[in-house]
Amino acid sequence: MSTPHTFTEFGVPEPLVTALDKQRITEPFEIQQLVLSDALAGGDILGRAPTGSGKTLAFGLPMLARVGRGSTRRPRGLILSPTRELAEQITVELAPLAATVDRRVLAVYGGNGIQRQITALRRGIDVLVACPGRLLDLIDQGAVDLGDVEVAVVDEADRMADMGFLPDVRRLLDQTNVERQTMLFSATLDNDVKVLIDRYQRNPIEYVVAEPEPDLSTLHHRFVKVDKRDRVWLAADLITDLGSSIVFVRTRHGADRVARQLRQAGVKTSRIHGGRSQGQRDQALRSFAEGQTQALVATDVAARGIHVDGVAGVIHYDPPAEHKDYVHRSGRTGRAGAGGVVVSLLAPDQVSESVKMQRALGIDGEIEPTPERVHNLEPVAASERQKGKPSSRSKSTRSRPTRSRSARSRSGRSGSKDSRSARPGSNHSGSKGAPSESGSSRAEGSPRTKQSGKPAGKQQAKTRSARQDGETRSARQNGETRSSRQNGETRSVRQNGETRSARQSPAGKPTSGAKAKADTQRPKSKRSGKPRPKNRKNRPKQSTKGRRRAGQSTRS
Asked: Which of 74, 228, 294, 399 could bridge 148 with an S-S bond, Cβ 3.0-4.6 Å?
């Protein structure tokens, strides 16, 4: 019987060993036993180990033991992570250990305020845990310099390649110290990861632990043919039967939509994807891990690097793009030797691709027809569906009520924009509640002249709407239009640069000058003998020759 190994045997400094003892971590995992000695000696490490095998301490303990004190904006150790969740997990695990050796650890990633991260970097940091995108943003702003990095770690390198981060990773590693120690850990070592190995490592020592991929033989695989419109109720039935389940979709918008539809189908659901803030993602994982929600709807960002125990099943709501994604998605269930169920929902046009993937992975599964609906669940309460969401009132509720056309016509034209806003030279201010001239004209005692019926005093550029003795008048004086109705007759007169549209009695004021000449050319009313209103219907019908002769006689 072999004697249990301790961290001291592999050269871990005593302060770190004491901190591990306080956390009841006394015996190193297999990957830690293999890596610690060479990593503490400064060699480049290539670790091939699955998620959850103890990689964090395998590279974290040597880094804390070897890096010196960093200065303002210049860390000495760098750990690159593909996701926010993994970066936060690494920081939480290493921060208590770093404090025992007087080292500071900081995580920077998108979704958190960049200004707070810049402030922390100005205070000085020793080990920086970062997602590539946010770290490049900080470098572009001059908030961090990687020139003093002595130890660099790339965690989940294959996941970096899958997410398209390799160009960013290369750009970051190019800015570090040329003499640095480089440790690279990955569940698989394919051609994409080999690019990093060849370019940034010198004679790396490779260690392989367990299987490079999850063991799919312990899982029960089901492939169900179903129309897309029936996927929601089928997924709800499966979650109800299986219990705690992760539902994988392809896009962020798809995750939001499916989560909403499952809640409407009666399944308590949380969601996680790259478009949510870090706090929202942490809360979603917490509620799912604690059993507050039955399903976690996720994109592939949750396929690796996240540990949730007790997941009974995985549902591929959208089939994975590659067989490698199927493996890592399915690996979220059946952990630690427990059984698990993996169900793929396939549209009719996706069946052939699924059969090819099964052959490539060595999975023996039949394509099942759509089962009958079993569960008819009550929708999740509206208060739970809307928790943390803005009010979803309809546009008609949010918009202002509009008046009908008849109501607007009854109110006259005094409510137009010209009448609501103050004009140059007018006496009203246009502020709400201020006394307006139009309002005062409704009073019975308004002084008017006897000849024209205009208000006394000089008024410029003002719209007046008044009702007196059943008569509505809208007037513009000195650049203002007046429209009044009197005894059913309309008259349009332009005087002193002013256009007047008025209805006056037969005894109204006669016109003069050129306007009077024009009036004589219009047909006259049989009742009053006055020229009819000037409009298209009553326009004099004369030939061009007749109009020319009339013009000549007028000039003569």
From this structure: 74
For residues 35 and 103, membership in a common domain is answered with: yes
Which of 385, 400, 422 lies at the terminal end of a domain, its last residue?
385
Q: Based on the fold, state whether residues 230 and 272 are members of the same structural domain.
A: yes
Positive or negative torsion for Cα 178, 182, 187, 191: positive
SS3 state at 14:
helix
Question: Which CATH number goes with the domain that contains 285?
Answer: 3.40.50.300
Q: Which domain holds residue 315?
A: 216-385
Strand partners, 49: none
What pLDDT score was predicted for residue 332?
84
Taking the CA of residue 504 as centre, how many other CA atoms within 13 Å lie in the half-sphere pointing to its CB? 20
- Residue 427, pLDDT > 90, answer no
Q: For 340-398, how does the pLDDT look when each residue is reduced to its tens digit (9 = 90+)?
A: 899 999 999 999 999 999 998 888 888 999 999 888 888 886 555 444 444 343 333 33
Task: Quote the mean pLDDT of the chain.
Answer: 75
The pLDDT score that the predictor gives to residue 208 is 87
Q: 126 vs 43, 67, 219, CA distance in Å?
A: 20, 8, 43
The domain boundary residue, chosen from 342, 358, 385? 385
Q: Which two tokens stand for residue 178?
A: 């040329």
Report yes or no on 117 lying in a domain: yes
- Is 0.70 surpassed by the pTM of this model? no
Q: And the tokens for 83?
A: 């996701």
pLDDT in tens, 16-61: 999 999 999 989 998 999 999 999 999 999 988 776 678 899 999 9
| 182 and 263 fall within a common domain | no
Residue 308, CA atoms < 13 Å, CB-side half-sphere: 29
| Element of type H or E holding 263 | helix 252-264
Q: Are residues 140 and 124 located together in one domain of the fold?
A: yes
How would DSSP label each residue in 98-120? HHHTT--EEEE-TTS-HHHHHHH
Residues 65 and 159 both lie in one domain? yes
